[in-house]
Amino acid sequence: MAVVGNLLAGIGFVWLLVVVHEYGHVFAGRSLGVPADHIRVELSSPPAHVALRDGDTWLSPDEPGYQAAFQRFNPSGDAAWLYVAAGLGAETVLAVAAAASLIAVGLDGASTTLLIASLLLGAGYLLVDVLGTARAGRPTGDHSAMWAMRRLPTAALVLVSLCLKIIGVSWASQ
User: Fold this and answer.
1) pTM greater than 0.85
2) What is the pLDDT of residues 135-148, one digit of tens each?
3) Which of 1, 16, 32, 113 is most open to solvent, judged by the fewest CB atoms within 10 Å of its CB?
4) Rounded distance, CA 92 to CA 130, Å?
């Protein structure tokens, strides 16, 4: 019975983390100059993504013109990287902070489930990105887009995110 409960909690945590990931992009986009009526989260059309408005059309990150739609409001390459990186950053901050809070109140098992869900979500995002990028010959996800813009900060962000979650799992398991 505990396995089913952990599985259901894990699925719930993954959904929460997807929402936080996407709204991390939105928060960054808004902070970097994208007006509220030009950015929205699309959770019902797989994969979940943040759409940007180009005139009367809403563009997904896979469509031509998406980068130009963002750069209309902020042409900086640093801003574009921050916009993309904010999904992983927000998801990592929430997962680690929530896991630490769960440990603090004695819910070590829930903390472990949350962090494992976060690790699996990150691995899934990365795998889909790598396969899609290899097939398309161009960046198709957050990791490859960040890598194409800024390699060292991307490697650092991914490594820090991974290490924090692994350390959290180890800490919760003691």
Assistant:
1) yes
2) 999 999 999 999 99
3) 1
4) 20
